[in-house]
Amino acid sequence: MKRIFLSLHSIENTLKNFNLSWLKLITMYDDRHCDRRIALNHAFSMLSEMENFLKEGRREKFFRWLGFLQGVLWSFSEFSLNELRNHNRPPE
């Protein structure tokens, strides 16, 4: 299995992209989508804590939380698995 090591800069860019995606998603839904909005708001609130994990060098915890966020996005059909996989890939 080939291991890909992402730089801190690459991880921070991924986090910024997720921030923009979450803001867009949260504002899209009205009261009929309350459960979805609550889930997306909770996930969005995790992003600032994830930034702290990076600053503290807690990359393993960061990646666990990133996996959770990707699962939320996938479960709401916001991104396909391939799209989510590409979010984590370094640019070629």
Tag the structure with descriptive keywords.
0% strand; 92 residues; 4 helices; mainly alpha
Would you give an account of this structure?
By secondary structure, this protein is mainly alpha-helical. It has one domain. The chain is built from four helices and no strands. α1 (8-28) runs antiparallel to α2 (34-55) and α2 packs antiparallel against α3 (59-75). The longest helix is centred in the middle third of the chain and has 22 residues, at 34-55. It is globular and about 35 Å long. The two termini are 19 Å apart. The model has no long low-confidence stretch (mean pLDDT 78).
Q: What's the short story on this structure?
A:
The chain has 92 residues and is mainly α. It is 73% helix and 0% strand.
Could you give the topology of this structure?
Elements: H1 8-28, H2 34-55, H3 59-75, H4 81-87
- The low-confidence parts are none
> What coarse outline follows from CA principal-axis ratios?
globular
Beta-sheet strand percentage? Answer: under 5%
Helix content, binned percent: over 70%
Biggest β-sheet strands, sense, barrel: none
Counted up, domains total 1
Summed over residues and divided by their number, the pLDDT gives a mean of 78
Q: Return Rg in Å.
A: 14 Å
**First-to-last CA distance:** 19 Å
Give me the strand/helix succession. HHHH
Figure out the total of helices. Answer: 4
- Which structural class matches the secondary elements? mainly alpha
| Total DSSP E strands | 0
